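PROTEIN DESIGN WORKSHEET
SECTION A - STRUCTURE
LENGTH: 376
TOKENS:
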């Protein structure tokens, strides 16, 4: 029986993980070795998302002992012990292939549950096509901002952390200053056991910064504090060299209360793609050079199929189907009917080129792609 942690102030829904009933598989990521499932617990009316992910290897788990150390106790779990069950698939000359089952201590699987899950959560964890939007300040004001004000994930979990109602015992560091302070704690995605895949969040105490877009020169003290104090705390708690840490914001984030993501540079954490991440160092530098940089910049971001914001942008500009001259240049004046096309291609050639572009823009996902293109 697995019960979610409860505190006296905030009641979390209860469920028995072993009673999960599968409705369908949302994504199966063979690279990350994770699978996202949609189903229910006791109440068939409430959807649940369960994400199972194989844990990364800890270096201590492959340690082997010299014969003289063998009698020492207690032993740390290791793959190379008498508990290892070995099935030989084949041995051919110098090459061997096996299926092995290690001891119970090493078989853990990280499991994340979202319950009850909303339609928006289901969208986020489903396989889909993605599109890049170039958001000008004007588009932000007219399209993105009204949308995110009316439709966004609840920030309840963020406020629970900031008010010490949940995850209090997981806090790694806190600076309580209302203007420049923040809470540093493990991200939901981190298994908490493997320093190699360490993943922390720095959540600011200030409530009025939705995202990168709202940052300006007046926030520099906050950002510098976030950078320095997090590095100090991580060095103290985990012994990681501050120069080995990646600190960044997502744009767009899933949750519109400013938070920084922190993980080691040598680990390819989920969501570090260039189309989504903005390094804290770069953000600070941009604001030092131009205090209103993020109110003036065009910020690219990714939208996924199924997100209503994509439909709103589609009404403004073609996104799913690329027009014939849909490149980065200004649209030329319309040509007269008998004029040679400016780039020297005939109408048929133009049409063929357009088809090729459309094919490139909206490919049918191959099975392999479909398994790894989760929106999350
Ligand atoms: O994309 P965005 O920048 O909004 O990322 C939000 C981050 O918050 C993700 O990395 C999530 O894994 C993390 N996160 C989401 N929830 C609901 C929780 C939570 O309840 N606790 C913690 N510690 N992290 C969360």
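SECTION B - SEQUENCE
RESIDUE ASSIGNMENT:
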């Amino acid at each position: 029986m697995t019960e979610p942690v409860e505190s006296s102030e905030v009641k979390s829904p209860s469920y028995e993980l072993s009673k999960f009933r599968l409705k369908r598989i949302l994504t199966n990521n063979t690279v990350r070795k994770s699978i996202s499932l949609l189903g229910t617990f006791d109440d068939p009316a409430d959807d649940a998302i369960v994400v199972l992910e194989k844990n990364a290897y800890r270096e201590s788990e492959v340690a082997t002992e010299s014969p003289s150390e063998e009698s020492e106790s207690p032993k740390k779990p290791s793959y190379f012990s008498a508990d290892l069950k070995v099935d030989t698939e084949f041995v051919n000359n110098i090459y061997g292939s096996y299926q092995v089952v290690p001891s119970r201590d090493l078989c853990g699987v990280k499991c994340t549950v979202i319950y009850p899950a909303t339609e928006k959560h289901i969208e986020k964890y489903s396989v889909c096509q993605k599109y890049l939007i170039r958001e000008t300040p004007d588009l932000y004001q007219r399209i993105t901002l009204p949308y995110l004000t009316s439709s966004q994930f609840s920030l309840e979990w963020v406020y629970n952390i900031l008010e010490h109602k949940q995850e209090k015992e997981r806090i790694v560091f806190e600076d309580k200053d209302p203007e420049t302070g923040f809470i540093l704690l493990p991200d939901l995605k981190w298994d908490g056991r493997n320093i190699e895949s360490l993943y922390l969040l720095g959540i600011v105490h200030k409530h009025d910064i939705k995202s990168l877009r709202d940052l300006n020169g007046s926030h520099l003290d906050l950002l510098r504090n976030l950078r320095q104090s997090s590095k100090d705390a991580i060095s103290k708690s985990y012994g990681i060299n501050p120069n080995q840490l990646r600190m960044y914001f997502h744009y767009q984030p899933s949750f519109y209360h400013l938070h920084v993501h922190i993980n080691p540079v040598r680990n390819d954490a989920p969501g570090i793609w260039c189309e989504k991440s903005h390094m804290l160092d770069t953000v600070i530098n941009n604001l030092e050079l131009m205090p209103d940089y993020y109110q003036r910049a065009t910020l690219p971001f990714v939208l996924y199929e199924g997100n209503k914001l994509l439909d709103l942008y589609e009404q403004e500009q073609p996104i799913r189907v690329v027009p014939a001259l849909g490149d980065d240049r200004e649209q030329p004046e319309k040509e007269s009917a008998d004029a040679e096309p400016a780039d020297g291609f005939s109408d048929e050639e133009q049409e063929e080129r357009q088809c090729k572009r459309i094919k490139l823009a909206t490919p049918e996902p191959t099975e392999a792609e479909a398994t790894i293109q989760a929106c999350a």
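SECTION C - NOTES
Confidence is low (pLDDT under 50) at residues 1-8, 330-374.
The CA atoms of residues 214 and 244 lie 28 Å apart.
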